[in-house]
Design brief:
about 10% strand, eight-stranded antiparallel β-sheet, alpha+beta, elongated
Length: about 600
């Protein structure tokens, strides 16, 4: 027992020191336990501490569910399933900024109740960044609240956070008692409401106001592009207002080619089938236009000669190399589509802004090309001596043609998971399979969504929890905790348990902390007679109080760069939130739960 406790303490300290990667430390922990118990396992617990048992965490239904939910989250991100909704809300940002911000954060909260927080924050970071720019506000006032709101939402349902699933699995394995889908909801919503009020009131006071990071110098470059209006195109029939087209608000329409004539601004006639718009726009606005309506993507992907592919769609940039065979040729004459598989979205020439049909422009050395194609064609493009590919400028483009399907599958997973006879692991696996089968993402993208860091960390935490449980370590810690705090009543006992977990979760990780304390909480329940569900909900809420450090949770790290945060910013803003939620839970616990007897 003492060797196990010492090894766990050493493992926690190495995790906290952050000198080695989480993956390496996790593998070291598993290897150490397997080697130690191969020689020193107690006779009474040999079967429970065998290599097969210590590695059983990797096949635990809770871990499989988490991995499947990561795939579902990646599919939601890959298809831009939430972008159309947030873009519609953003239309009223200037006139009603507070209402719009509230709606965006409410959507992030609602989705995070039923989906892993990480892909949700990834989806909303560009939305929040864009809103802060339009409001001439600092992104540092919004990014950390985004992460915290999503973490608070994760407390409210069984699948809202990986922590919840792991603790529920520990409860069922030890007692046979299943945690319901909405068991954390009532208390979780109360804590989330308290946390949200804190964020609204103290965010403007405690969060720094820092200017956004310098954008890349190429981000504002204007490209000449052309858009052909077809019968099913979203611009067909678009009427100008005050000489401008409303759907092209962020794009400068330089002229409209109609047959042999050219219409110049200000425009008076509606757009018709066959019109070709010559526009000037940045890469960002062109990408935003393509993802605003699935018909734009369908029009691009149906262009003659553009091959279909199941790979994800990318936008990249390239420069015409000196001595390139494409110099003094038009795009069609250069055969760029045939050679590379990419379409040219736009041309950028540093010396001047051209007013002519894009496909008629003769290429020059140093011209920048904005390219649209599939990820699988990038290899050929890298080996092309006529073009210099800017690898850092290559980014995935959400394939919003599948966004409706992704939303339907996600809704079905949530409904199935909330229906008691259907195991959550079955709902999650079926949802992940449906996302792949329907083309919302391919196998390569699905595998990329399986975070090895989370996988190994949880596997190592399972091994530590198992060792604590079967060597008597968990029972010993529980006895000491009960002996110290039980004389003061169940409320004091819960307060001590919550506070220790909340501190450790900010130094280690919420999943590992929850797995370590789940068997301890169960042992406390056995010794005091307090309902194990109450104590394990305490573990869930405390382990999700990962606000005080950027390393406590992935979403905190995700917003660190866009928000220009320092380590101390999390402690200053997140630390009081941890204390507030701890105090709130301790005060409200006797009201929300039955705590007797001890």
């Amino acid at each position: 027992m003492w060797a196990t406790l010492g090894f766990v303490a050493l493992a926690v300290s190495v995790y906290c020191a952050d000198r080695f990667s989480i993956e390496a430390v996790s593998i070291g922990i598993i290897t150490g336990f397997v080697a130690f118990f191969a020689f020193f396992a107690p006779d009474s617990a040999q079967a429970n501490l065998s290599p097969k048992s210590l590695l059983s965490g990797f096949s635990d239904p809770a871990l499989i569910t988490i991995m499947a939910l990561l795939v579902i989250g990646q599919a939601m991100f890959q298809t831009g399933a939430l972008e159309s909704t947030t873009m519609r809300i953003n239309n009223g940002l200037e006139s009603r900024p507070r209402r719009t911000l509230t709606l965006v954060f409410a959507i992030a909260f609602f989705v995070s109740m039923f989906l892993n927080n990480t892909p949700v924050v990834v989806m909303f970071i560009p939305v929040i960044a864009s809103m802060s720019l339009r409001l001439r506000s600092s992104a540092s006032r919004l990014m950390m609240p985004l992460s915290f709101i999503c973490i608070l939402a994760g407390m409210t349902t069984l699948i809202g956070s990986s922590t919840n699933l792991l603790v529920a699995g520990a409860l069922e394995a030890s007692t046979g008692q299943a945690m319901g889908f909405f068991d954390p909801t009532r208390a979780g919503l109360v804590l989330a409401a308290i946390g949200a009020v804190y964020i609204v009131i103290f965010g403007p006071i405690l969060l720094p106001k820092r200017s956004a990071a310098e954008h890349d110098s190429t981000s504002g470059r204007q490209y000449i592009a052309q858009i052909e209006v077809t019968a099913s195109h979203p611009l067909n029939g678009e009427r100008p207002i005050a000489g401008l087209f409303p759907k092209m608000r962020a794009i400068t329409v330089r002229m409209v080619l109609r047959g042999d004539s050219a219409l110049l601004p200000p425009f008076e006639e509606p757009l018709m089938t066959g019109d070709i718009l010559v526009v000037a726009a940045t890469r960002k606005t062109l990408a935003k236009l393509l993802t605003s309506d699935s018909r734009y993507l369908k029009a691009m992907l149906s262009i003659d000669g553009f091959k279909a592919s199941p790979d994800n769609i990318v936008i990249s940039e390239a420069i015409i190399a000196p001595g390139s065979t494409m110099i003094d040729r038009s795009i069609l004459q250069a055969g760029l589509r045939r050679k590379t598989g990419f379409l040219v979205l736009g041309i950028q020439r540093r010396s001047r802004m051209l007013r002519k049909k894009m496909l008629d422009i003769r290429l020059e050395s140093g011209d920048g090309l904005l390219l649209f194609g599939h990820d699988s064609d990038l290899t050929n493009l890298r080996g092309n001596r006529d073009l210099l590919l800017l690898d850092w400028a290559t980014k995935d483009l959400p394939d919003i043609r599948k966004s409706r399907m992704a939303r339907l599958i996600f809704a079905a997973v949530v409904l199935a998971a909330a229906y008691p006879p259907i195991p959550i692991v079955l709902a999650a696996l079926a949802g992940a399979l449906a996302m792949i089968a329907s083309g919302c993402l391919n196998i390569r993208q699905a595998v990329r969504a399986l975070d090895m860091k989370i996988f190994l960390l949880i596997g190592a935490a399972f091994a530590m929890a198992l060792a604590l449980e079967h060597t008597g370590g968990a029972r010993y810690i529980a006895m000491q905790t009960v002996n110290i705090f039980a004389p003061f009543g169940p409320q004091a006992l819960i307060a001590a348990l919550f506070l220790v977990i909340a501190i450790l979760t900010n130094l280690l990780s919420n999943s590992a902390t929850a797995l370590l304390f789940a068997p301890i909480a169960i042992n406390i329940s056995q010794q005091t007679g307090i309902d194990p569900l109450v104590l394990l909900l305490t573990v869930i809420f405390a382990a999700n109080c990962c606000f005080a450090t950027p390393i406590a949770y992935q979403t905190n790290l995700l917003v660190m760069g866009p928000g220009q945060y320092k380590f101390s910013d999390y402690l200053r803003f997140g630390g009081p939130l941890v204390i507030l939620l701890w105090a709130s839970f301790v005060v409200l616990a006797p009201i929300m739960f039955t705590l007797t007897p001890i």
